Amino acid sequence: MGRLSGFKYREVARKLRTFGYAYVRQGKGSHEVWRHAETGLVILVPHHSRDLPEGTLRAILREAKIEVEDFLRA
User: Fold this and answer.
1) In terms of Cα–Cα distance, which of 3, 33, 39, 1 is closest to 19?
2) Residue among 22, 24, 26 at smallest CA distance from 36
3) What CATH number matches the domain at 9-73, 3.30.70.980, 4.10.520.10, 3.30.920.30, 1.10.10.10?
4) Successive 10-residue mean pLDDT values, the chain, 74 residues
5) Are 36 and 20 in contact (CB under 8 A)?
6) Alpha carbons 28 and 15: distance in angstroms, whole number
């Protein structure tokens, strides 16, 4: 298990808000669209009750231009 394993949707959403992202709308299926207030970057976040897979979280952070270390500290 890596450093990004075991994160639930709620915790990821809370941390994304600290980086300036806000929920915009429901996407396809169980996904949500989030947008950064200043840069306008748009990311898709799956909304599931189980833990997010580590690779999925890494992809979200890469799209959001958030470093793993910064995410873990937030």
Assistant:
1) 39
2) 22
3) 3.30.920.30
4) 90 96 95 96 94 95 96 94
5) yes
6) 22
pLDDT on residue 45: 96
42-46, strands of its sheet edge to edge: 21-26, 31-36, 42-46
Residue 12 CA to residue 60 CA, distance in Å, equals 10
In whole angstroms, what is the distance from residue 57 CA to residue 19 CA?
15
Tokens of 4: 């990004």
Task: State the number of CA atoms in the 13 A half-sphere of 58 facing the CB.
Answer: 7
Structure tokens at 25: 């709308």
Yes or no: say if 24 and 33 are a contact pair by the CB < 8 Å rule.
yes
